[in-house]
Amino acid sequence: MAFVQCSGLRKTYTVGDEEVRALDNVSITVEKGDFIAICGPSGSGKSTLANVIGGLDQPDEGSVLVDGVDLAKAKDKELSEYRNSRIGFVFQSFNLQAHETALENVISPLVIGGVGKKKERRERGMKALERVGLSDRAGHKPTQLSGGQRQRVAIARALVNDPQMIIADEPTGNLDSSRGSDVIAELRRLNSEGITLIIITHDPNVAAQAKRVVEIKDGKITERTGAR
Amino acid sequence: MRFSDQFRTGWRNLSRQKLRTTLTIFAIVIGAVSVTVMLSLVTSAKSFLVSSAQKTGMDKRVIVTGSTGLDYRESTWNWPDGSGKRIDKDTLEAVTKLPHVASATLYSQVQMIRSFVLESTNQELEFKNLSFEAYTPNGTIKHLLVAGEELSEKTNGTGILVTTGVANDLGFKGRESELVGQKLVLKFRTDMGPPDARKADETAVITGVVMGENGDGLSVDLEWAVRMNTMEWTQKGPNGQTETMKESQIDRYGYSSVWVSLDDKKNADALMAEVAKLGYGAAAGQEEIDTQATVFTIIGAVLGGIGGIALLVAAIGVINTMVMATLERTREIGIMRAIGATKRTVRRLFRVEAGVLGFMGGLFGVAISFGVAIGLNQLLNKQLEDSGITDRDIVSISPVIALVVLLITTLIGMLAGSLPARRAANMDPVEALRYE
């Protein structure tokens, strides 16, 4: 069975008086170790799909089976545990806690999950920072880091709990092209180590590096492209 | 999320907004201080009342009167006017035989003094609004001694106790002990008995200065009082011979009451029931202590209520602070949720934070209250010393009150934090992440 199996997903938002169909009968499967790019213009529903697969949002209809567990029917506790220990999120705007150091940001999933003691957390946090090449910036606050460094801290945070999957929503959106490629290279390296990777992007250069590309428009999957 | 991590995170979040946190805590401190100090003042006053009552034996006292239906206070001032049952030596004998009576004495309040003179200064004071009590000094009646000693057999029958108010009027405020051993000349009223009845002055020796339990006055040995109370005069008999007549108020009307000291204060009701069977009235000192204690309890409730209002206002401050915090930290909450915080974790985080505000407020409040108590005691000790009371440091913050206040402020904080905490927990993480 596929690692992620979404079928018949529907999700409608009400914005003012208008109903927006973010997901309209979307079905998609993701195999273990896959690298998928979900592309589409803004407002197409690609972020909603990522949020649903990432357990941040739940669909109105349909099922999201991850390792046999249906996230569409899961309770807050299960969803939270899933977000905490099974997957890692990387956002366009980094979403680091500004008042915390890089290391504190990285170990925050361990703190929230109640994992390990202080020493173990520190060790795991430093290891994750080393993986993204930022162990020398552990004590810096996000404001003292460049955009690329911030995104790498965010990746280290996503990595710290040894997730099976990383979902990156426009990870290069706030970065210049050279820093963007560093980040994508970093993510690809993680994928090559066996982590399933889903990248939401509207950048064709980023999409081109994925094994599979899924096009989404007006809440519907319009096109699938095979592996590179 | 572990509690220790929640506490650390909460603490850290609070210290990010130092001024706001300080002000919120300050409001709780005001509430905590007012509740702690006011409740402690009342409990201190109550325990002072009770310990004083124990020293005088008031808690074990029952007063037997000729009239029925008098309360304790009325009983102490009761005046034999012929309306109730007569109180005399037979009454004492009957009462003494009753169960639970440890000791008893006849007691008399007699208005026969016109004025009294302190021999050493020749200062004369009118006997006005004063009590002149007489009893057998067998230990049944005790006072709060300021100087000297109680009446006893060795004080030779002509000893006299003066209250601090009288000592004050005699000019011995703060120097009460100097009065002990001095002579007090008692001058008698001339309007009692026949026109030619005259009573020579009597000289008493001050044995002690005491706190007046029921106002100010003088206390003497009953036997001596009876002798003093006897008027002598002469009149022509039916055969023209001169007769010497003797009469005392006490002989005519009887004594005021019998004062009983119980073996145990629990037995007051039992004894009073027995006394009632004999046809006398009775009132227990413990009732009066309870009445006064109730007054203190009511005052305590009112003052505590005022403190409670201060705490309520502080709680609104906590709500305000935490609502602000949820708004400011919307994005942070979103991030926490994205990396796996449950609604419950977010809710508890904010509640712990509010609880820390309450706890800190309570802690500082209680600490300041101890300081206030020290200050009040310094003021009060001076007053107590001036009025000749030996007790010191009567205001004390009971550890129970301190702990309860600490617990209450923490709970109030957590309760006040509940609403904002729920708001924070129920935020949609996707929306929260988008929040700028």
Provide key terms for this protein.
heterodimer, A: 228 residues, alpha/beta, Rossmann fold, six-stranded mixed sheet, four-stranded antiparallel sheet, 34% helix, B: 436 residues, alpha+beta, twelve-stranded mixed sheet, two-stranded antiparallel sheet, 13 helices, 19% strand
Structure notes:
The complex is a heterodimer of chains A (228) and B (436). Chain A has helices spanning 46-53, 76-86, 102-113, 118-131, 147-159, 177-192, 204-207; strands spanning 4-15, 18-30, 35-39, 61-66, 69-70, 87-90, 165-169, 196-201, 212-217, 220-225. Chain A has 228 residues and is of the alpha/beta class. Chain A has one domain: 3-Layer(aba) Sandwich (Rossmann fold), CATH 3.40.50. In chain A, the strands form two sheets. A six-stranded mixed beta sheet of chain A has the order 6-7-8-3-9-10, sandwiched between helices. In chain A, strands 2-1-4-5 form a four-stranded antiparallel beta sheet, with helices on one face. In chain A, helix 3 (102-113) packs across helix 4 and helix 3 runs parallel beside helix 5 (147-159). The longest helix of chain A has 16 residues, at 177-192. Chain A is globular, with a radius of gyration of 17 Å. The two termini of chain A are 23 Å apart. By secondary structure, chain B is an alpha+beta fold. Chain B has helices at 3-16, 18-56, 72-76, 89-96, 164-169, 222-229, 249-253, 268-277, 285-328, 330-338, 343-386, 399-425, 429-434; strands spanning 61-65, 101-109, 113-118, 123-126, 131-135, 144-148, 159-163, 183-188, 202-211, 217-221, 230-236, 242-248, 257-262, 281-284. Classes of the chains: A alpha/beta (228), B alpha+beta (436). The interface between A and B is medium-sized, with 25 and 23 residues.
